[in-house]
Amino acid sequence: MWLSQAPLGERLDEYVKKEWNHEPHIGETPESIIADVLSYSSNAVAAANAAEPLVTKNHDEFERLRNDTRCIQMMAENYSAKVRAAEHVLRYDYSHDLGDMREAENFLIHSLVAYEELAVLTTPTYHYANSMQTSQRKIPVPGGIRGGAGGG
Description:
Layout: H1 2-5, H2 12-20, H3 30-51, H4 59-95, H5 98-122
């Protein structure tokens, strides 16, 4: 998909190499994507929080939606921190500076904290990583539970 559907940009390894060599960047970069997802997710949380006093009915449904915005924000924090950790690991290949590995460790810790917060937010509402709990997906699987030929 990266080669056929994605906008012009750089993969993480290309980005780190260009940063190290002080070369100009082209299109989307890992840093620009991180900035976007963190901004969009925090804006969604802020908008949901601002809307809360205006909700006069279906408050339970609104709270589920508001919780989802927080979940998305924590997922964005989690993945962004992982990308930044990977960036420092790749940078270490050029710098051989243990400081880069320490920074990677710090970002991994931040990633874990965000994941733990995501787990807290999802525990009361989500029981599975997806919402389609069936014996098969788009492709029928013979022998699938409660479905498929020859299955139980």
